[in-house]
Amino acid sequence: MSLWTSLEPPSATVDPGASTTVRLKLRNTGDVVDEYRFEPVGDIAPWVTVEPQSLRLYPGTTGTVELSFAPPRTSDATAGPNPYAVRITPTEHPEATTVPEGNLTITPFTEVRAELVPPTVKGRLRGRPKLAVDNVGNTKVTASVSGSDTGDQLSYDIHPSNVQIEPGRAAFVKATLKPRQIIWFGSKEERPYTFAVKRSGAVPLDVEGTYVQRGFLPGWLATFLGLLLALAITFVMLWITHKPQVRSTATEKLDKAAVSTVPPSPQAPPSPAPPPTSSAPAAPPQTAEPENAGGGGGGSGGGSGGGSEEKKKAPKPTAATAVRKLAATDPGGKHICYRAFVAGKGWTAPECDGDMAGTVGQNRPLTALNIAVFGVGGTASAAFVHNPQSTDGQGHYVEPWSGAPDGSDNYVGDSKKDAPALLGFTLNVDNGGGAVCQAVHQRNEGWAGMACDKPNEGDRWTFGGTLRNDIWVEAVRFTV
């Protein structure tokens, strides 16, 4: 080997968002002038800068290059030791490549963000908001969630009340708000409340929301009932005051009626005509036959035309169509089928139980997913999409959430023209149905590992994708 190298220091430490420098010394131990090119390799190579990128040395001389490490302050900068290497390629002898290795320790940092979905809920007897807690740090965090309001007007049922969140992941907490007093009549009232996300040794993160409590019965109904009661009382009083008098001339009139009861004369007016005999309506009205005939002809023609049109434009199969076919052949199993809406292409054909939906290598984002399950009690989901107004480089959640029972279509995201790219999504299945697992292929990131929710451990949601605006989902795989 015609090259000697040394890293000074061989191990270094850096904070995310900051930078540090390591010097690489090398000596040309050969007998010819050679030029050396430097290339960082390893998982942290995107954060390494070599200056200069090439160095020319005479035999027996020594040179130095600087390696600058600048990991970002994001969850991608994994806390702990991270090995790295620099590939040194001699121009004159490229086969004599040297790869000195070092170690960079990235210090941990924690940062938690929380968002209410939706921030305002309405109801008469309860409200059901969801709290999304995002771990944008580079180490796992444990947090508890509690609720409070001014005047203790609401009670809180929070599940789960304690969460553990991996770096770059999000946990979803479901809450039920119940007013302590019911508004029977009257207009709605706004009741502000606060969710506190507490971590050991850190200041609690407060997220404010509003519960709009509606009256159980509209205010106008109370006014109407009051007026109705007043009218009823007035009528009773008038009836009592002006009670009709019964005269005793009834007997006299009966006597007169008895005296005048004689057989009617032939010129008396005839009695009312009897009802028509059964032979009168022997045939339906003349207007009924043309209507029936026309309706029959129109129905026949319309049915024929509609059948041919349906054959020409048969609807594309959805995820629910595919999962019901699987259920017919395996009624005791658990299945999941899904489609992906690819930007510029449209919906893919349904895939099931671990097959890929979407594209790889075409740089085409997904904007929507169509998911259906069988044997797991249904599914619920939320979409995290590109946000062009973002000030922190992250997307945002789309309201409202979507859900569907077994055998029905659930849609996540938007398939309209110019819909935002799907950066990630949250997915779960019914509590008694088992677990759902997902793997996503992201732009410039490749396939992420398969991640599953853990209902038995209180983690009933799985998040696929990322929070960053510049990394979108290109393909997915699901299993249950």
TrEMBL record:
Residue ranges crossing the lipid bilayer per the database entry: 220-240
Gene3D superfamilies for this protein: Immunoglobulins
InterPro entries assigned to the protein according to its UniProt record, in alphabetical order: ChW, Ig-like_fold
SMART domains cross-referenced by the UniProt entry: ChW
Segments of skewed composition (Gly residues): 293-307
Region of interest called Disordered, as start-end residue ranges on this chain: 251-321
Comp. bias regions, Pro residues: 263-284
Protein origin, superkingdom: Bacteria
Listed Pfam families: ChW
Keyword terms of this UniProt record: Hydrolase, Membrane, Transmembrane, Transmembrane helix
GO MF annotations, alphabetized: hydrolase activity
Protein name: Hydrolase
UniProt organism field: Streptomyces ossamyceticus
